[in-house]
TrEMBL record:
Full protein name: Mor family transcriptional regulator
UniProt xrefs under InterPro entries: c-mor_Regulatory_Protein (IPR052411), Homeodomain-like_sf (IPR009057), YraL-like (IPR049739)
Organism: Paenibacillus silagei
Top-level taxon: Bacteria
């Protein structure tokens, strides 16, 4: 994250208003919630895990044992249980 001089970016009236609260220090301004991306949207990780977890649930419903799923997907027995017994199969 790079620093930007507020005097070069903000109008004078806004700069003076901010200076009433903070002067000469770094200030982090977060993005708007409406513009934030959810976890894994940019990298594709969310979609990857959604597909993987659906496969795990499907294989479990077809009769695969928990320990088989652990070995195939490289996950712990607790992780597999959380996936197959979750009430919200979105993730």
């Amino acid at each position: 994250m790079q620093c930007i001089n507020a005097a070069k970016l903000l109008p004078d009236h806004l700069l003076k208003e901010i200076q009433q609260y903070i002067q000469g220090e770094a200030l982090y301004i977060p993005t708007c919630k409406s513009k934030r991306r959810k976890w894994g949207e940019s990298s594709g990780a969310a979609d990857y895990y959604k597909v993987r977890n659906a496969e795990i649930r499907s294989r479990f419903q077809e009769g695969a044992e928990l320990y088989q799923l652990c070995e195939q997907y490289g996950l712990s027995i607790d992780s597999i249980r959380k996936i197959v017994y979750s009430k919200n199969p979105q993730s």
